[in-house]
Amino acid sequence: MPTNFHVESIVDDDDKYAKFAAAKETPDAKTDKKVIPQLKQYDSKLGVFNFETVSLHFFIFVCFVLASGYAFTLVGGTFNVNLSERFGALQLEILGLVMLRKKIKNRDSVSGISGMTFVMYAVVYFSRIFLALPTRDGQAGFLELFDPNFQWKDVDFDVTLGCCSFLLVLDILKSVFVTHYKTYEAELDVFKAWYLIPACWATALLVRPHFESWTFMYSYGWSSTLYMDVLALMPQVVMMAKSGGKVETPIANFVAATSISRCGDLFHSLFMLGYLRSQEPFSYWLAVSVQIVHLLLVADFMYYFCKARTSANKETQEISLVEV
Predict the structure, then answer these.
(1) How much is the pTM?
(2) How far apart are CA 186 and CA 112, in angstroms?
(3) SS3 of 109, please?
(4) What is the pLDDT of residue 316?
(5) Distance (Å, rounded) from C-alpha 265 to C-alpha 95?
(6) DSSP character at residue 8
(7) CA dihedral 6, 246, 262, 231 (to 10 degrees)
(8) Does residue 60 surpass a pLDDT of 90?
């Protein structure tokens, strides 16, 4: 497996916006004379708010973020540092999935996308929803503790926003295995989910975090889900490596968004749950160590992704991680 990923500058679906901006660089002489020189700087800055340069998908996503935040406060919820961090991390996951879905639709192709990774994510998101269902007395358990008289303000974001992520993943799976199956590079997608998923659940039987308020089944389910989450991107990374280290644009943005979201999860564990260090140090550090391993597994990709983005910004041109 290569230790790095090849980076090339190309023009992708967003290039039309760069062309649009370039076309505006040559102003009409008569119009330009009418602009007061002192106001030119404000005129150019306000130009970024031109809706013609904003992707419709991104605009809808921003509206969704605002609407979901407002809905949470409407049912009596109150944002704090903990909830804000989790809300942002889950929204970032959704953004990555929306961007990927948009690219698939624009290209009518799923080349470079690992179906096994999204099989893993489908199981991960479903398990998260199941684990986060409201329970009696705030206990951590499964359906035997489910509280049918819950209040919406107490429902975890993993249930509400998690359902959105789950549905998006199912739609992407349909694109990979049904709609655009002819473009799916199955011969490169060799790290099979049906081996990884049982391995994660078997590992959780042997070693797992377990906190005082958790039942055995919750501890087992939570740990298995954590292990699956850590390995979910591995089929995609292996597929990138087998393709010569080249990375398709659609999946590059998704991997980056997901990795940043997991950085938020690690921040939450280190700074929001720090009180568990002294109470149950083994379980705490085991969970944190697994999250760190997750980030290390994609650190190589993130380094070259950020390097490519930085290089593109300096050259003021659109970039991708592979020529499409």
Answers:
(1) 0.75
(2) 10
(3) coil
(4) 40
(5) 16
(6) B
(7) -130
(8) no
